[in-house]
Write a structure and sequence with these properties.
Number of helices: 8
Mean pLDDT: 78
Structural class: mainly alpha
Order of helices and strands: HHHHHHHH
Shape: elongated
Number of strands: 0
Helix content: 55-70%
Largest sheet: none
Radius of gyration: 25 Å
Length: 164
C-alpha cells in the first residue's frame, strides 16, 4: 500500500480517476435498456467514441502526468461533448465527473509540498519564507510588504510621480 501511495502522490490521481470513472459511467448508461436511454446521438458512433476517449484520457493523465494540461483540456471538451452525444452526459453524472476530474488534473501542481509539511510549518510558526526576514516591529525587510501600517523604505510613489 505504501508503494501505491507514493505512486499516486506523484501524479494527478484524483483527477485522472474521476475522468476515467465519468467515461465508464457514460458507457454504462449507453448500454441501459431502451426506455431509459434519452438520447444516443445523431450517428451513434460518437456516443460510444467520446466516453471511450474520456476513459483513455483519464488513464493517460494517470500514467503520463507530464502532459496533464493538454489531456485535461481535451478531457473537459470530451466531457462537455457527451451532453449532445450520449444520454445527456450519462444523466449528468458522467459529465460532472469528467469536468471535475479534468479540472483537478489541470490544477494539480507537481512541485507543491505535501499538506502535512505545510501544516507542520504553520504549527511551528513559519508560514512563509518571508517570515524569517521579519524584524521585531513586524515589517518585512527585503520584500517591502507592510505588516503593521509601516511604509517600506525607499523612494515613495508620490515622490516618484511628483504628486507630493
Amino acid at each position: 500500500m505504501n508503494r501505491f501511495r507514493r505512486w499516486s502522490a506523484r501524479r494527478p490521481f484524483p483527477g485522472g480517476l474521476l475522468l476515467a470513472l465519468g467515461g465508464a459511467e457514460i458507457l454504462l448508461t449507453m448500454k441501459a435498456p431502451l426506455p431509459v436511454i434519452l438520447h444516443i446521438g445523431a450517428q451513434g458512433l460518437a456516443g460510444y467514441l467520446l466516453p471511450t476517449l474520456m476513459v483513455l484520457i483519464g488513464l493517460l493523465i494517470l500514467f503520463n502526468p507530464a502532459q496533464r494540461l493538454f489531456y485535461s483540456i481535451v478531457g473537459v471538451l470530451l466531457s462537455l461533448g457527451t451532453w449532445l452525444t450520449s444520454n445527456l452526459g450519462g444523466f449528468l453524472v458522467g459529465l460532472v465527473l469528467g469536468v471535475v476530474g479534468s479540472s483537478l488534473a489541470f490544477g494539480w501542481l507537481p512541485d507543491q509540498e505535501s499538506r502535512r509539511v505545510r501544516r507542520a510549518r504553520r504549527r511551528a510558526g513559519r508560514t512563509t519564507p518571508a517570515a524569517d526576514a521579519e524584524d521585531e516591529d513586524g515589517a518585512v525587510d527585503e520584500k517591502g510588504a507592510v505588516d503593521e501600517g509601516r511604509a517600506p523604505e525607499g523612494p515613495s510613489l508620490t515622490k516618484a510621480h511628483g504628486t507630493a
